[in-house]
Amino acid sequence: MKQRDFATRSIHDAEKPLKDTGEYGDVVIPIHLTTTFARKEPETATRGMDYSRTGNPTRQALERKLASLEQAKHGLAFASGLAAETCVIISSLKSGDSIIAGEDLYGGTRRLLVNFGSRFGIDVKFTDLSSPENALGLITERTKMIWCETPSNPFLKITPLREVCGLASERGILTVADNTFASPFFQNPIKLGCDIVVHSTTKYIGGHSDTIGGAV
């Protein structure tokens, strides 16, 4: 069967089929404001839900939909873009590792990398990734990640992701792409070989300057 196009996935993916629409038959995913979920059995969470910090049906629907739009296997939603980036860094790097990052990153991301590097012994090297060969001279056996932002915020510098991901993959290095400014509508970094995609959903995905969020 032909894959659904972007517009169809943005509307229908992660929506419940009619048989699973709940007690009231809602066809649009409701906003679950509860902090805690009742259990039929003390040892078993109801549909895997027990506490909204660890899982919430509304948030999971958002995660599934964003993953679908990015053509990824999984997605995670966060309270901000920097929270999403922090999760990627602390789950993927350790003291002694090295990361290569684009020189033209969003200011908050650059400060985050510099602060993490100085506090936790992670070597951070900035370079112009619009020319992928610039990364080659910086790669060492300690290099575990290349961090790209394309188009960059705010100067819209472009990183050729396919080339960067190719040289990283050959050396067993993770690639992260901040896809905030392109959005999944224009670009799917995973299809270009990227391992991890991050978003500040505050920007184009949110669309109206009325909410703060992030996603991986």
From TrEMBL:
SUPFAM superfamilies: PLP-dependent transferases (SSF53383)
Protein name listed in UniProt: Cystathionine gamma-lyase
Transmembrane segments: none
Matching Gene3D superfamilies: Type I PLP-dependent aspartate aminotransferase-like (Major domain) (3.40.640.10)
Protein source organism: mine drainage metagenome
Family classification: Belongs to the trans-sulfuration enzymes family.
Cofactor: pyridoxal 5'-phosphate
Keywords associated with the record: Lyase, Pyridoxal phosphate
Gene Ontology cellular component list: cytoplasm
